[in-house]
Structures are given as structure tokens and as C-alpha cells.
């Protein structure tokens, strides 16, 4: 197995339904990844150790999904200089808005790139964009994906015009 380039973390196994979509995209793009559960609040030592050791294991981008207080991505970013992409998850009384604010509102110097609530697919595409700087094979796959998407949309547009 190729060494993972992307680490996907989630605060709970209940987040897998959403975060698994990031894994699917990375798999389709041929990007190796690892996926694990690591709660910022219930497993702080594991979370810190994971973030500190990620670069040494060859990880180049981290994706972190959490709901409610959503501190996971920020905690990870505080322990590494690797790019961290936060996925706020829909949960609780505010349906993910609280998670969005918690993920996007980071102090200067500890950034977390943040996608939409439940936006795990876009987190994976953003990770691919970051990886494409260094990995030409990822760039080619990303370009091909976007071209296929463009062509499909053009076809749909043509069909609408015929109606």
C-alpha cells in the first residue's frame, strides 16, 4: 500500500457517514489516505500526538470533521504546520452552524481552511488541489475530473435548450 498523503480524522464514529465521502473522493482520485477517530475533547492526547507525528509519516494534508463545538480541526492545526481542512458537521440544535463558526473562526497564525457544513467531498477536492502542487498525477486526475464535470453540464445545458 502507498504511504498515505492525506489524514482524515473525525470526532466520533457517527461522523463516518459524512467523512467517508472524503475517503471516497480521495480513492477515486487515486490519493492514498488514512482515516481514524480522534476527539479533541475525549482523546486530546491522541489528537495531539496524531497531529505532531503526521508529517513524519508522510501525511501532507489533514482533513478534520467535527460537529457542535467542532474544535478538532483547530486543535490539530495548533500542533502542525501542515494544511488542515475543517469539515463542520451538521449536528445539534443549530444544525451545524455552530460547528461552522467554531471551525472557521481561528486566531491569526493557526489557520484552518473550512468547507461547507457536511462538505467532506469538497474537503477532499481541496486536499487534491493542494497535493497537485507537488504531485503531477493528482493534478492530471483533478483536471480530468473537472473536464468530465464540465462536459456533463454542457450536455445537460444542450438538452434544456432543445425543450
Helices and strands in order, then pairings?
Elements: E1 6-10, H1 16-28, E2 33-37, H2 44-54, E3 61-67, H3 72-79, E4 84-89, H4 97-104, E5 113-114, H5 120-131, H6 136-162
Parallel strand pairs: 1-2, 1-3, 3-4, 4-5
Summarize the structure.
This protein is of the alpha/beta class.
Structural overview:
This protein is α/β, with parallel strands linked by helices and about 160 residues long. The chain has six helices and five strands, in the order βαβαβαβαβαα. Strands 2-1-3-4-5 form a five-stranded parallel beta sheet, with helices on both faces. α3 links the parallel β3 and β4. α1 (about 15-30) packs parallel to α5 and α2 packs across α3 (about 70-80). The longest helix has 27 residues, at about 135-160. It is globular. The mean pLDDT is about 95.
Amino acid at each position: 500500500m502507498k504511504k498515505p498523503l492525506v489524514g482524515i480524522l473525525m470526532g466520533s464514529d457517527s461522523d463516518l457517514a459524512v467523512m467517508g465521502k472524503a475517503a471516497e473522493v480521495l480513492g477515486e482520485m487515486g490519493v492514498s489516505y488514512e482515516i481514524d477517530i480522534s476527539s479533541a475533547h475525549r482523546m486530546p492526547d491522541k489528537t495531539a500526538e496524531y497531529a505532531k507525528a503526521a508529517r513524519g509519516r508522510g501525511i501532507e494534508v489533514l482533513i478534520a470533521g467535527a460537529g457542535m463545538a467542532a474544535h478538532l480541526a483547530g486543535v490539530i492545526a495548533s500542533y502542525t504546520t501542515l494544511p488542515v481542512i475543517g469539515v463542520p458537521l451538521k449536528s445539534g440544535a443549530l444544525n451545524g452552524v455552530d460547528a461552522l463558526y467554531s471551525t472557521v473562526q481561528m486566531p491569526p497564525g493557526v489557520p484552518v481552511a473550512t468547507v461547507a457544513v457536511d462538505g467532506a467531498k469538497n474537503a477532499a477536492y481541496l486536499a487534491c488541489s493542494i497535493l497537485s502542487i507537488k504531485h503531477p498525477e493528482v493534478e492530471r486526475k483533478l483536471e480530468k475530473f473537472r473536464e468530465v464535470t464540465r462536459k456533463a453540464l454542457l450536455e445537460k445545458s444542450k438538452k434544456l435548450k432543445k425543450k
